[in-house]
């Protein structure tokens, strides 16, 4: 199979490496010239995936048309806030029969659209598959056993993606619940920022466990309100990704939360890294979606106050603990 991966960040690079390792003729599009040069000459991406050796057959290019030409599978791994523009830029070059895989996690800020909806709107008439689950790019590219989910309403498409990526250390499961899989992948980033903030102010493991568990409850409430299945949030794209991102040392969202909790200004935290912490962007989108659906998300709201309103993290935690008492199932 000929595969095109659009996005030369850590996750796009890792997925391109996986596809090349599986024997697919894979070309990666990257905006950054140095990323293209390093992949083609040293089989590495030191800017976004330092220390990893990439498959020798993987190629990269800064010309999107050349990357997309003849592709049977197109994987989108651009950050959520630029995904629509990136897809639109290459739309005319995407083959009609190509299966589209969306590895971006997020909720578009203005439209509140999920990432597969963004791609489907820009490229109508194609089969679109969401790829999500607990997966740090560094561990995937170093061959650590990893399991993720391919979700689509098109059975043939999701099963084709499952076969294309599965093998060796990577295992894909399939799902029909695109909404649940996508929201799980997007909202867990917000909760990871929350657990990072708690860690940054010196709170302990009890607090982390509470935030993860109550964060999952918020994710489920919002998900169900837009048609997702409850059981999806108990799976890889829900609880699996949530636990990983809230506890793993490689989590960018957790790291941002820790720094903010320790008193560093958000702008300074974001300026110190080229990698995107999707939880920061998704916090605003998630709250807008929750307001539209009339769903209460107190943890997400608390994260927003700390990130964007300079609220004291300790005061916000105290407010969360002082909320009206209620049964667990009521939220």
Folded structure, characterized:
- The chain is of the alpha/beta class and 331 residues long.
- It has two domains: 2-176, Rossmann fold (3-Layer(aba) Sandwich); 179-330, N-(1-d-carboxylethyl)-l-norvaline Dehydrogenase, domain 2 (Orthogonal Bundle), CATH 1.10.1040.
- 50% of the residues lie in helices and 11% in strands.
- It is built from 15 helices and eight strands.
- It has helices at residues 10-21, 33-42, 64-68, 83-89, 115-122, 137-141, 155-165, 178-200, 205-225, 236-247, 252-261, 266-271, 278-293, 298-308, 313-321; strands spanning 2-6, 25-29, 59-61, 73-76, 99-102, 128-132, 146-151, 170-175.
- An eight-stranded mixed β-sheet has the order 3-2-1-4-5-6-7-8, sandwiched between helices.
- Helix 4 (83-89) links the parallel strand 4 and strand 5 (99-102).
- Helix 8 (178-200) runs parallel beside helix 10, helix 9 (205-225) runs antiparallel to helix 10 (236-247) and helix 13 packs across helix 14 (298-308).
- The longest helix is centred in the middle third of the chain and has 23 residues, at 178-200.
- The chain is globular and about 60 Å long.
- The mean pLDDT is 96.
CATH topology name of the largest domain:
Rossmann fold
Which second-level CATH architecture of the largest domain applies? 3-Layer(aba) Sandwich
CATH class of the largest domain: Alpha Beta
Helix content: 40-55%
